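== Fold encoding ==
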Amino acid sequence: MQNRSEAVRISPANRLSRSLEANRPLIRLAGSALLGYVMANSFLFGTVAPFGVAFCAAVGGGAAAGAGLGAILGYVFTLGEITNIKYVTGIMIVLAIKLLFGKRKISDSSTVFATVSTLTALGISSAAVMLASDSTIYQVMVSLAEIFLATGAAYFFSRTRQAFEAGLGGAGRAELSCMIISCTIVVMGLSGLTISDISVGRVLSVLVILICAWCGGEAAGAVAGITAGVAMGLTRGDYSYVVASYGFGGLIAGVFSGIGRMAVAGAFILINAIIAIMTKPYTDIYTVLFEILVASVLYVAIPGFLMAKLRLHNFSSAACPNVSLTQKAVQDKLGDVSQALKEICSTTRQVSQKLEQMETGSLSSVYTKVADRVCRRCGLKAKCWQYQQTETMAALDECASLLKIQGTLDKESIPKYFTETCCKLESFVTELNTQFTEYVAREGTQAKVAKVRSVVTDQFEGIAMMVEEIAAELAGMKLQNEKKTQRVRDYFEKMGAPPSSTLCYENEFERLTVEVVIPAYQESKLNKTKAALDLCTMLEAELDMPTVSVRDKLCTLTFTEKATYTVALGAYQISNGGNRLCGDAYDYIRNRGGRSHFIISDGMGSGGSAAVDSTMTAELLSKLLSVGISHEAALKMVNSALLIKSGEETLATIDITTLDLYTGRAEFYKAGAAPTFVVKNGKATYLESSSLPVGILRGVAFEKSISMLKENDLVIMMSDGVITTGVEWIASELEANLKMDVQRLCEKLANTAKMRRTDGREDDITVLAIQVQKGI
């Protein structure tokens, strides 16, 4: 059965991202309305609910109208029993203040504006209610407390909104505290929403506590627990015990954050179970524990990569502030560079398109120059260019057609119209040939210039993509573990190779990486196997043998966590006609993220020129992929390099298989390449490509497909020389030789392909076999 890959131009994720971006104002308006409704139902003691007014004041721009509408609906159709006229009036006053003063000296989205407008609006509406009724001193004090509570909430909401708009990576302790308080008010609004006696608000409260404990340790867990506990206790009044259980549970859960997510959830469940048994009636224990269990399941179900992004480094910034600030500064700088390059790319492309439109000449310029230089002083010019202009232009068009075919004209080949009417025929023919030759040369030069412009634009775009990916990788790196880093530094000093720098960190998939830089001359003295084993014991992690890179007399040893899988690799080539140089090239690399890349490139034709194209393509891809550059960015750079390499036509196919040795996920990228066979469970299928090779046109894109592999699965990559007699025989050979060694299998397929070709022609043949094996 044939498996055809699909071209990757705009992925579903990119389409969704673009759709969300296009509808951002509408989404923000709807989200503000929904949050406004929830805030209006956040009660204290069952009667006090000023948070809808505060939220409306904190939201800036056009979204304030949505927040106000949602909050008004929340007050009108409230989940609680309260007369909410003063809150609705307060919202109307806030919106009026934003309308009147929001665009003057102070922005309506600022913290000062939010707090002042909340204080003013709720003060006016509360005063009106108190004047209209016989209020006691106690009721006046409650109203004043409510006003200042709403003002504080507006401050928290405003700071939280600003932190999200600026990016969570730069949030400090104050912003994080404001976020926790804001989230707590949101879950207060949902606490009255129950499903079979299970409170949605309390489930979300526990979920927030567990996330904070995992991301920020015991400090964040305790802060989130106490805040959520107080909020839940104040909401209905009969759950004050949660202050102790949530606060202490969050503290203990944070203590276990270094062990793993299951330990965090287990510690929180255990603490809350003990407190619930000791303080609650027997009939309520099951509901309490079930709510915590539901939240724990949701917490554990959050994907690891998302939890890595949610981990907030700021709680740990006191331990290594320089690393945090440096990482953030470098990340921001790379982001600025990437954005600048993208803007340059966009500007260059627009200018290039404008110039192409302006510079696109036509044969009319040839006619004009010939007429100006030959016919201007001719006494018959009025006859030819006025009275018989239609006949003259028709004859010139006939000349143009002949010039495009022949290149030049003479008196014998010139149209009969000119031989009969032109009195300066010889000068006319000479000038026509001269101007046409210059026109062709000018058009060729402009085409080359346009090509260079397009290539430079692609280069800028490719560099921008690479810088952006480096910034994203840096953002995914967690702060280095100072304790582990110090242990590694001490170890290498004892080994007699004091490092110039040491770094221990986890990537976005929570996989440990240890990088040690030592003088290059120390590498030969170091027992790398012993070092890897010792670090495994010291850091309590399964580390693989280090990868080694040497630059500027410094050697970098990179230890990564041992992968689930390894590969057995086989490769075999047969050159066309026994040539010394093969027109195909292949390579295998493994980068530091545990991803292995297998590359085949087939140059156009055979021999030396094809070998240059394919080798250049494979080497450029290897260098880019080995340092973590994405396939799409690498393709753009390689394609532009081939386009500009020489004035002659040059192209090469690209076939890449990327295997994640931790998960078994295989990604197949093809640009004009031959089919790739995948053997799973004894059955062989193949993936084809209909995309163009690189070096022909701008905008070449990979066709991509994905497959999950496991132990003993096989991937066979090949060049076009293997499939000249079809592909069905290859599937049969693979299924018949499942237990054959991969190197022998490559040799058998290559030799069989050469033997099957009986048309008297030959081509370069390359076969690459990858077998997935269990990691050692």
